[in-house]
Protein backbone atom coordinates (compact mmCIF):
# COMPACT_ATOMS: atom_id res chain seq x y z
CA UNK A 1 0.00 0.00 0.00
CA UNK A 2 1.28 3.45 -0.90
CA UNK A 3 1.93 5.63 2.14
CA UNK A 4 -0.61 8.40 2.58
CA UNK A 5 2.23 10.90 2.95
CA UNK A 6 3.16 10.20 -0.69
CA UNK A 7 -0.37 10.98 -1.86
CA UNK A 8 -1.07 14.22 -0.03
CA UNK A 9 0.60 17.62 -0.10
CA UNK A 10 1.96 18.95 3.18
CA UNK A 11 -0.38 20.88 5.46
CA UNK A 12 -1.25 23.71 5.03
CA UNK A 13 -1.83 22.82 1.38
CA UNK A 14 -0.14 24.39 -1.60
CA UNK A 15 -3.12 25.16 -3.81
CA UNK A 16 -2.97 24.74 -7.56
CA UNK A 17 -3.50 27.76 -9.80
CA UNK A 18 -6.52 26.12 -11.44
CA UNK A 19 -9.37 25.91 -8.92
CA UNK A 20 -11.90 23.08 -9.15
CA UNK A 21 -15.33 24.13 -10.37
CA UNK A 22 -17.00 22.51 -7.34
CA UNK A 23 -15.54 22.15 -3.85
CA UNK A 24 -16.89 20.13 -0.97
CA UNK A 25 -16.42 20.73 2.75
CA UNK A 26 -16.06 17.51 4.74
CA UNK A 27 -14.19 18.50 7.92
CA UNK A 28 -13.52 14.84 8.82
CA UNK A 29 -12.66 12.27 6.16
CA UNK A 30 -14.78 9.17 6.53
CA UNK A 31 -14.51 5.52 5.51
CA UNK A 32 -17.69 3.49 5.00
CA UNK A 33 -18.04 -0.21 5.84
CA UNK A 34 -21.06 -1.32 3.77
CA UNK A 35 -22.66 -4.71 4.32
CA UNK A 36 -25.98 -6.44 3.70
CA UNK A 37 -27.46 -7.75 6.97
CA UNK A 38 -30.62 -9.36 8.28
CA UNK A 39 -33.01 -7.19 10.30
CA UNK A 40 -32.22 -8.91 13.62
CA UNK A 41 -28.90 -7.06 13.90
CA UNK A 42 -30.70 -3.71 13.60
CA UNK A 43 -32.94 -4.71 16.50
CA UNK A 44 -29.84 -5.01 18.72
CA UNK A 45 -28.30 -1.59 18.13
CA UNK A 46 -29.49 1.79 19.42
CA UNK A 47 -31.30 4.29 17.22
CA UNK A 48 -33.99 4.12 14.57
CA UNK A 49 -33.80 1.94 11.49
CA UNK A 50 -33.20 3.85 8.29
CA UNK A 51 -31.51 6.81 9.94
CA UNK A 52 -28.01 7.97 10.83
CA UNK A 53 -27.01 8.20 14.48
CA UNK A 54 -23.45 8.80 15.77
CA UNK A 55 -21.88 6.05 17.90
CA UNK A 56 -18.76 5.73 20.05
CA UNK A 57 -15.81 3.70 18.80
CA UNK A 58 -16.72 0.83 21.18
CA UNK A 59 -20.20 0.58 19.66
CA UNK A 60 -18.81 0.72 16.12
CA UNK A 61 -16.39 -2.10 16.90
CA UNK A 62 -19.21 -4.12 18.50
CA UNK A 63 -21.34 -3.77 15.35
CA UNK A 64 -18.42 -4.75 13.10
CA UNK A 65 -17.77 -7.82 15.28
CA UNK A 66 -21.44 -8.84 15.09
CA UNK A 67 -21.57 -8.61 11.32
CA UNK A 68 -20.17 -12.06 10.66
CA UNK A 69 -23.27 -13.75 12.11
CA UNK A 70 -25.77 -11.44 10.37
CA UNK A 71 -24.40 -11.01 6.83
CA UNK A 72 -26.82 -11.65 3.97
CA UNK A 73 -24.92 -13.31 1.10
CA UNK A 74 -25.51 -11.87 -2.36
CA UNK A 75 -24.61 -13.62 -5.63
CA UNK A 76 -24.25 -10.19 -7.30
CA UNK A 77 -21.57 -8.93 -4.91
CA UNK A 78 -17.99 -10.32 -5.03
CA UNK A 79 -17.55 -9.51 -1.32
CA UNK A 80 -20.24 -9.24 1.38
CA UNK A 81 -18.43 -6.25 2.90
CA UNK A 82 -17.18 -3.18 1.00
CA UNK A 83 -14.90 -0.58 2.58
CA UNK A 84 -14.59 2.65 0.60
CA UNK A 85 -14.20 6.39 1.07
CA UNK A 86 -17.49 7.70 2.39
CA UNK A 87 -19.40 10.69 3.63
CA UNK A 88 -22.18 12.52 1.82
CA UNK A 89 -19.95 15.26 0.41
CA UNK A 90 -17.28 12.80 -0.76
CA UNK A 91 -19.96 10.72 -2.50
CA UNK A 92 -21.31 13.78 -4.34
CA UNK A 93 -17.85 14.95 -5.42
CA UNK A 94 -16.79 11.48 -6.54
CA UNK A 95 -19.95 11.20 -8.62
CA UNK A 96 -19.41 14.59 -10.24
CA UNK A 97 -15.78 13.80 -11.07
CA UNK A 98 -16.07 10.21 -12.30
CA UNK A 99 -19.53 10.23 -13.85
CA UNK A 100 -19.86 13.78 -15.15
CA UNK A 101 -16.27 14.94 -15.67
CA UNK A 102 -16.68 18.01 -13.47
CA UNK A 103 -13.50 19.23 -11.74
CA UNK A 104 -13.95 18.81 -7.97
CA UNK A 105 -11.91 19.20 -4.81
CA UNK A 106 -12.45 18.36 -1.16
CA UNK A 107 -11.68 20.54 1.87
CA UNK A 108 -11.10 18.67 5.13
CA UNK A 109 -8.72 16.52 7.15
CA UNK A 110 -7.83 12.84 7.34
CA UNK A 111 -5.80 10.85 9.82
CA UNK A 112 -2.39 9.32 9.14
CA UNK A 113 -3.80 5.81 9.65
CA UNK A 114 -4.82 2.94 7.38
CA UNK A 115 -8.35 4.36 6.97
CA UNK A 116 -6.89 7.71 5.94
CA UNK A 117 -4.74 6.02 3.31
CA UNK A 118 -7.79 4.23 1.95
CA UNK A 119 -9.76 7.50 1.76
CA UNK A 120 -6.93 9.24 -0.08
CA UNK A 121 -6.40 6.40 -2.56
CA UNK A 122 -10.10 6.09 -3.35
CA UNK A 123 -10.62 9.83 -3.88
CA UNK A 124 -7.38 10.10 -5.88
CA UNK A 125 -8.54 7.28 -8.12
CA UNK A 126 -11.81 9.17 -8.64
CA UNK A 127 -9.84 12.25 -9.76
CA UNK A 128 -11.00 14.46 -6.87
CA UNK A 129 -8.47 17.23 -6.10
CA UNK A 130 -6.96 16.62 -2.64
CA UNK A 131 -4.76 19.73 -2.41
CA UNK A 132 -7.13 21.15 0.25
CA UNK A 133 -7.22 17.95 2.33
CA UNK A 134 -4.96 18.29 5.37
CA UNK A 135 -3.31 15.23 6.87
CA UNK A 136 -3.15 15.16 10.67
CA UNK A 137 -1.79 12.71 13.19
CA UNK A 138 -4.66 10.66 14.55
CA UNK A 139 -7.58 8.54 13.38
CA UNK A 140 -9.91 8.84 10.40
CA UNK A 141 -13.67 8.68 10.87
CA UNK A 142 -15.55 5.46 10.11
CA UNK A 143 -19.17 4.59 9.44
CA UNK A 144 -20.92 1.24 9.28
CA UNK A 145 -23.73 1.14 6.69
CA UNK A 146 -26.15 -1.70 7.35
CA UNK A 147 -28.20 -2.58 4.27
CA UNK A 148 -31.39 -4.66 4.54
CA UNK A 149 -32.76 -7.03 1.89
CA UNK A 150 -35.10 -4.31 0.56
CA UNK A 151 -32.20 -1.87 0.07
CA UNK A 152 -33.01 0.33 3.07
CA UNK A 153 -29.83 1.42 4.87
CA UNK A 154 -29.09 2.31 8.47
CA UNK A 155 -25.92 4.28 9.20
CA UNK A 156 -23.88 4.47 12.39
CA UNK A 157 -20.99 6.95 11.97
CA UNK A 158 -18.14 7.25 14.47
CA UNK A 159 -16.44 10.65 14.35
CA UNK A 160 -15.88 11.43 18.02
CA UNK A 161 -12.15 10.65 17.94
CA UNK A 162 -11.53 11.47 14.27
CA UNK A 163 -9.21 14.27 13.19
CA UNK A 164 -11.07 17.33 11.99
CA UNK A 165 -10.50 20.52 10.05
CA UNK A 166 -11.14 23.36 12.48
CA UNK A 167 -13.00 26.52 11.52
CA UNK A 168 -9.93 28.71 12.06
CA UNK A 169 -7.94 26.66 9.53
CA UNK A 170 -10.19 27.65 6.63
CA UNK A 171 -8.92 30.42 4.37
CA UNK A 172 -10.30 32.39 1.45
CA UNK A 173 -7.67 30.70 -0.73
CA UNK A 174 -9.42 27.38 -0.07
CA UNK A 175 -12.45 28.43 -2.12
CA UNK A 176 -11.12 31.20 -4.35
CA UNK A 177 -11.83 30.67 -8.04
CA UNK A 178 -14.46 27.94 -7.58
CA UNK A 179 -18.17 28.28 -8.40
CA UNK A 180 -19.85 26.05 -5.83
CA UNK A 181 -19.20 24.91 -2.26
CA UNK A 182 -21.03 21.71 -1.26
CA UNK A 183 -21.57 20.92 2.41
CA UNK A 184 -23.67 18.74 4.71
CA UNK A 185 -25.43 20.03 7.81
CA UNK A 186 -23.98 18.62 11.05
CA UNK A 187 -24.15 20.17 14.49
CA UNK A 188 -20.66 18.94 15.42
CA UNK A 189 -19.25 20.77 12.37
CA UNK A 190 -21.31 23.90 12.82
CA UNK A 191 -18.39 26.27 13.44
CA UNK A 192 -16.61 25.04 10.33
CA UNK A 193 -19.82 25.22 8.28
CA UNK A 194 -20.45 28.82 9.34
CA UNK A 195 -16.84 29.80 8.61
CA UNK A 196 -16.92 28.12 5.19
CA UNK A 197 -20.20 29.80 4.23
CA UNK A 198 -18.86 33.20 5.31
CA UNK A 199 -15.69 32.74 3.26
CA UNK A 200 -17.64 31.43 0.26
CA UNK A 201 -19.86 34.49 0.25
CA UNK A 202 -16.82 36.77 0.45
CA UNK A 203 -15.41 35.03 -2.63
CA UNK A 204 -18.68 34.98 -4.59
CA UNK A 205 -19.01 31.19 -4.36
CA UNK A 206 -22.51 29.65 -4.29
CA UNK A 207 -23.35 27.29 -1.41
CA UNK A 208 -25.24 23.98 -1.60
CA UNK A 209 -26.33 22.24 1.60
CA UNK A 210 -27.77 18.79 2.27
CA UNK A 211 -29.86 18.32 5.43
CA UNK A 212 -28.00 15.14 6.44
CA UNK A 213 -30.62 13.02 8.29
CA UNK A 214 -34.01 13.33 9.92
CA UNK A 215 -32.36 12.84 13.32
CA UNK A 216 -29.98 15.75 12.71
CA UNK A 217 -32.85 18.01 11.60
CA UNK A 218 -35.07 16.94 14.49
CA UNK A 219 -32.44 17.26 17.22
CA UNK A 220 -30.60 20.36 15.97
CA UNK A 221 -33.40 22.23 14.25
CA UNK A 222 -33.00 25.73 15.70
CA UNK A 223 -29.40 26.07 14.46
CA UNK A 224 -30.45 24.73 11.05
CA UNK A 225 -33.29 27.24 10.74
CA UNK A 226 -30.85 30.02 11.58
CA UNK A 227 -28.53 28.88 8.77
CA UNK A 228 -31.34 28.61 6.24
CA UNK A 229 -32.94 31.93 7.18
CA UNK A 230 -29.62 33.74 6.80
CA UNK A 231 -30.18 33.67 3.05
CA UNK A 232 -26.63 32.39 2.49
CA UNK A 233 -27.68 28.91 1.31
CA UNK A 234 -28.23 29.03 -2.45
CA UNK A 235 -29.31 25.41 -2.95
CA UNK A 236 -30.79 23.04 -0.36
CA UNK A 237 -31.47 19.31 -0.66
CA UNK A 238 -33.80 17.44 1.71
CA UNK A 239 -35.37 14.01 1.54
CA UNK A 240 -38.97 13.40 2.57
CA UNK A 241 -38.17 12.51 6.20
CA UNK A 242 -35.85 15.49 6.65
CA UNK A 243 -38.49 17.75 5.11
CA UNK A 244 -41.10 16.53 7.59
CA UNK A 245 -38.77 17.13 10.54
CA UNK A 246 -38.00 20.61 9.23
CA UNK A 247 -41.64 21.82 9.22
CA UNK A 248 -42.91 19.74 12.13
CA UNK A 249 -44.47 22.79 13.83
CA UNK A 250 -46.56 23.75 10.81
CA UNK A 251 -50.29 23.10 10.75
CA UNK A 252 -49.78 20.85 7.75
CA UNK A 253 -46.64 18.73 7.46
CA UNK A 254 -45.88 17.52 3.93
CA UNK A 255 -43.11 17.85 1.32
CA UNK A 256 -44.82 20.78 -0.45
CA UNK A 257 -44.90 22.82 2.76
CA UNK A 258 -41.21 22.09 3.37
CA UNK A 259 -40.36 23.01 -0.21
CA UNK A 260 -42.16 26.35 0.11
CA UNK A 261 -40.24 27.10 3.31
CA UNK A 262 -36.88 26.25 1.74
CA UNK A 263 -37.64 28.20 -1.43
CA UNK A 264 -38.45 31.25 0.67
CA UNK A 265 -34.84 31.35 1.84
CA UNK A 266 -32.85 29.53 -0.87
CA UNK A 267 -32.47 30.22 -4.57
CA UNK A 268 -33.14 26.55 -5.36
CA UNK A 269 -34.98 24.10 -3.08
CA UNK A 270 -35.20 20.35 -3.71
CA UNK A 271 -37.12 17.66 -1.83
CA UNK A 272 -36.47 14.09 -2.98
CA UNK A 273 -39.29 11.57 -2.60
CA UNK A 274 -37.60 8.23 -3.26
CA UNK A 275 -39.48 6.15 -5.81
CA UNK A 276 -41.92 9.06 -6.26
CA UNK A 277 -39.20 11.26 -7.77
CA UNK A 278 -38.69 14.80 -6.52
CA UNK A 279 -40.16 18.28 -6.28
CA UNK A 280 -38.16 21.45 -6.79
CA UNK A 281 -38.74 25.16 -6.73
CA UNK A 282 -36.66 28.09 -7.92
CA UNK A 283 -36.64 30.86 -5.35
CA UNK A 284 -39.82 32.76 -4.59
CA UNK A 285 -41.71 32.04 -7.82
CA UNK A 286 -45.33 31.79 -6.71
CA UNK A 287 -46.87 28.38 -7.35
CA UNK A 288 -44.04 27.27 -9.62
CA UNK A 289 -43.29 23.78 -8.24
CA UNK A 290 -41.60 21.38 -10.64
CA UNK A 291 -42.50 17.70 -10.14
CA UNK A 292 -40.33 15.05 -11.77
CA UNK A 293 -40.96 11.29 -11.47
CA UNK A 294 -38.23 8.78 -10.69
CA UNK A 295 -36.37 7.26 -13.62
CA UNK A 296 -35.60 3.58 -14.15
CA UNK A 297 -36.16 0.61 -11.86
CA UNK A 298 -37.66 1.16 -8.43
CA UNK A 299 -35.97 -1.74 -6.60
CA UNK A 300 -32.83 -0.68 -4.76
CA UNK A 301 -29.96 -3.01 -3.95
CA UNK A 302 -28.67 -0.36 -1.52
CA UNK A 303 -30.04 3.14 -0.96
CA UNK A 304 -26.67 4.37 0.37
CA UNK A 305 -25.65 7.50 -1.52
CA UNK A 306 -28.93 7.90 -3.45
CA UNK A 307 -29.41 11.49 -2.27
CA UNK A 308 -25.70 12.26 -2.65
CA UNK A 309 -25.62 11.11 -6.27
CA UNK A 310 -28.91 12.88 -6.99
CA UNK A 311 -27.08 16.03 -5.89
CA UNK A 312 -24.21 15.17 -8.28
CA UNK A 313 -26.57 15.04 -11.24
CA UNK A 314 -28.53 18.11 -10.22
CA UNK A 315 -25.36 20.18 -9.79
CA UNK A 316 -24.08 18.95 -13.15
CA UNK A 317 -27.30 20.24 -14.67
CA UNK A 318 -26.95 23.60 -12.97
CA UNK A 319 -23.36 24.20 -14.05
CA UNK A 320 -24.29 23.18 -17.61
CA UNK A 321 -27.19 25.62 -17.60
CA UNK A 322 -29.89 22.97 -18.09
CA UNK A 323 -33.57 23.74 -17.40
CA UNK A 324 -34.71 22.92 -13.87
CA UNK A 325 -36.72 19.90 -15.00
CA UNK A 326 -33.65 18.48 -16.74
CA UNK A 327 -31.49 19.06 -13.64
CA UNK A 328 -33.97 16.90 -11.75
CA UNK A 329 -34.01 14.24 -14.46
CA UNK A 330 -30.22 14.00 -14.50
CA UNK A 331 -30.25 13.81 -10.68
CA UNK A 332 -32.81 11.02 -10.87
CA UNK A 333 -30.60 9.14 -13.34
CA UNK A 334 -27.47 9.43 -11.20
CA UNK A 335 -29.36 8.64 -7.99
CA UNK A 336 -30.82 5.60 -9.72
CA UNK A 337 -27.37 4.48 -10.84
CA UNK A 338 -25.85 4.30 -7.35
CA UNK A 339 -28.63 2.20 -5.78
CA UNK A 340 -27.91 -0.67 -8.17
CA UNK A 341 -24.91 -1.88 -6.10
CA UNK A 342 -23.55 -1.70 -2.56
CA UNK A 343 -22.08 1.60 -1.39
CA UNK A 344 -22.10 5.25 -2.36
CA UNK A 345 -19.78 4.73 -5.36
CA UNK A 346 -21.29 4.10 -8.80
CA UNK A 347 -19.86 1.07 -10.59
CA UNK A 348 -18.73 1.42 -14.25
CA UNK A 349 -21.60 -0.69 -15.60
CA UNK A 350 -24.06 1.51 -13.72
CA UNK A 351 -22.60 4.67 -15.22
CA UNK A 352 -23.36 3.01 -18.56
CA UNK A 353 -26.93 2.46 -17.36
CA UNK A 354 -27.17 6.13 -16.37
CA UNK A 355 -25.92 7.42 -19.72
CA UNK A 356 -28.45 5.19 -21.50
CA UNK A 357 -31.26 6.60 -19.35
CA UNK A 358 -30.07 10.14 -20.08
CA UNK A 359 -30.03 9.44 -23.81
CA UNK A 360 -33.55 7.99 -23.67
CA UNK A 361 -34.71 11.18 -21.95
CA UNK A 362 -32.82 13.32 -24.50
CA UNK A 363 -30.62 14.81 -21.76
CA UNK A 364 -27.15 16.29 -22.29
CA UNK A 365 -24.62 13.55 -21.58
CA UNK A 366 -21.07 14.30 -20.39
CA UNK A 367 -18.21 14.04 -22.85
CA UNK A 368 -16.62 11.22 -20.84
CA UNK A 369 -19.61 8.90 -21.30
CA UNK A 370 -17.63 7.30 -24.17
CA UNK A 371 -15.12 6.14 -21.53
CA UNK A 372 -17.70 3.73 -20.11
CA UNK A 373 -19.08 2.48 -23.43
Tags for this model:
373 residues; globular; disordered N terminus; alpha/beta; 9-stranded mixed beta sheet; UDP-N-acetylmuramoyl-L-alanine:D-glutamate ligase; 4-stranded mixed beta sheet
Fold blueprint:
Blueprint: E1 22-28, E2 30-36, H1 39-42, H2 57-66, E3 81-86, H3 88-100, E4 104-111, H4 114-125, E5 133-136, E6 141-147, E7 153-158, H5 172-175, E8 180-184, H6 190-202, E9 206-210, H7 214-219, H8 221-229, E10 235-239, H9 240-246, H10 255-265, E11 268-272, E12 278-282, E13 289-292, H11 306-319, H12 324-338, H13 348-360
Parallel strand pairs: 1-4, 1-8, 2-6, 4-5, 8-9, 9-10, 10-11
Antiparallel strand pairs: 2-3, 6-7, 11-12, 12-13
Helix pairs in contact: 3-11, 11-12, 12-13
Description:
Helix 11 (306-319) packs antiparallel against helix 12 and helix 12 runs antiparallel to helix 13 (348-360). With 373 residues, this protein is an alpha/beta fold. It has helices at 39-42, 57-66, 88-100, 114-125, 172-175, 190-202, 214-219, 221-229, 240-246, 255-265, 306-319, 324-338, 348-360, and strands at residues 22-28, 30-36, 81-86, 104-111, 133-136, 141-147, 153-158, 180-184, 206-210, 235-239, 268-272, 278-282, 289-292. It is globular and about 55 Å long. It is 35% helix and 20% strand. The chain has a 9-stranded mixed beta sheet, sandwiched between helices. The two termini are 30 Å apart. Residues 72-344 form the Carbohydrate kinase PfkB domain. This is Carbohydrate kinase PfkB domain-containing protein. InterPro entries: Carb_kinase_PfkB-like (IPR052700), PfkB_dom (IPR011611), Ribokinase-like (IPR029056). Keywords: Kinase, Transferase.
